[in-house]
Amino acid sequence: MMRRAILSLLLASSAAAAQRPTLAAAVRQFVSVDTTIVALTHVRVIDGTGAAPRENQTLIIRDGAIAALGDDGKIAIPAGALVIDETGKSVIPGMVQVHEHLFYPTGPGMYGNLAESFTRLYLAGGVTSMRTGGNMNGYGDIAIARSIEAGNRAGPWIDATAPYFEGPGLNLIQVRELKDAADATRMATFWADEGATSFKTYMHITRVELAAVIKVAHSRGIKVTGHLCSVTFHEAAELGIDNLEHGFFPATDFVADKKLDECPGQGKGQASIAALDPGSEQLRVLIAELVKRKVALTSTLTVFETSTPGRPLPRCLDYLTPQLKEQFEQRYAMTQRNAASALFPKARAMEMAFVKAGGTLLVGTDPTGGGGLVPGCSDQRAIELLVESGLTPLEAIKVGTMNGATFLGRASKVGSIAIGKQADLVVLNGNPAARIADLENVEIVFKQGIGYDPAKLINSVKGKVGLF
């Protein structure tokens, strides 16, 4: 048995050679574990597949990869390894969240690029891979992704979106308006050439423009997601879209007088969702279509929670500048004076119906809207809300790890804990399989085998998020 364990260690370490990155001095200040071989002992392993936790495990990290994993006492600890006793603690895969941003509302109708502070906070919260579900800064997302990959900045691996593909009607000066399908083709080709690895379509795009974006994207191996309104979920699925954002909150499929290629307004669309029975035949038919066409759905309950009366104040607001903190708290106070709405519980029930029908649910936070959502903290909350909606903790963790990795085409590297995979891991104080709020107790975040100190990352930006 011991010989087999040693052999598996040697094979896995050989396959993992050269995965461990070289970091700039500016990044090393946030590192707490920086050695070639690390042994986590007496740890509870929650592997991201939905399987039951395994108690009293030893996990060996070598050269940036998971080299061995098994019961304590049955795994040989290599000479020279840094041994960390994790009694009472859990390890989960690094989170893979797919509706994140590197911008935040900093003024009326304006969004500031906060890539430096946001990427540190995402990593501190346990997010080791993410997709930026929309780009307000042109080349910014692409450049930050490359800088992190090169070891010059601390942050998750980033699937970087191009700027939004949007038609006239949003009236936001940071978003370019498409002219027609030919323009959509030109824009999609341009940003694919420039290095964008994901496309996000938006509320006032037409069906022919969406089709043009999808055609270019799929020819280049790029996936397309959408926060739609003018195009219904059913229409988008028929056109071949890969992903739809915000669960069913923005769906206009059930607006009675919906006109082709016209957005009836978010208010009207959401009113139709609030009035719909989650067990209705109408919804069942739409869900069946999405499942048949393998369209993934992204849950972003966090952003809707901030505008729903009776919901708790978000965590970590003290990370924001005092001005942004006060701005959100005033908005939150106004929200609490509103009448209760049926939208939030209805849309949550619809997400659960989608999961039960075999749909692929992803998760993200969307730290934009009216503000108040702080990266990292909000990513933990997003998974907690899935449990509140009806998933088990293990199911919710899988949505936030393996489901995201599979959708992004990275499941062979990340998203679960298995021998030979990249050592993207989060060490937590507690047991999130029993108490999902223990996701908040992050002690170490390993990315490619290097352990980051969440407190150092947070303290570097605390009270200053909004400035950089």
Description:
The chain is of the alpha/beta class. The protein folds into two domains: 2-93 and 416-457, Urease, subunit C, domain 1, CATH 2.30.40; 95-407, Alpha-Beta Barrel (TIM Barrel), CATH 3.20.20.140. It is 34% helix and 20% strand. It has helices spanning 2-15, 25-28, 115-124, 140-149, 181-194, 207-219, 233-239, 266-274, 281-292, 301-305, 322-336, 343-356, 377-389, 393-407, 454-459; strands at residues 31-33, 37-45, 54-62, 65-71, 82-85, 89-93, 95-100, 103-107, 110-113, 127-132, 157-159, 198-201, 223-226, 243-244, 296-299, 361-363, 425-429, 442-447, 450-452. The strands form four sheets. Strands 1, 2, 3, 4, 5, 6, 17, 18 and 19 form a nine-stranded mixed beta sheet that branches. Helix 6 links the parallel strand 12 and strand 13. Helix 5 runs parallel beside helix 6, helix 8 packs across helix 12 and helix 13 crosses helix 14 (393-407). Mean pLDDT is 95; it is low at 1-18.
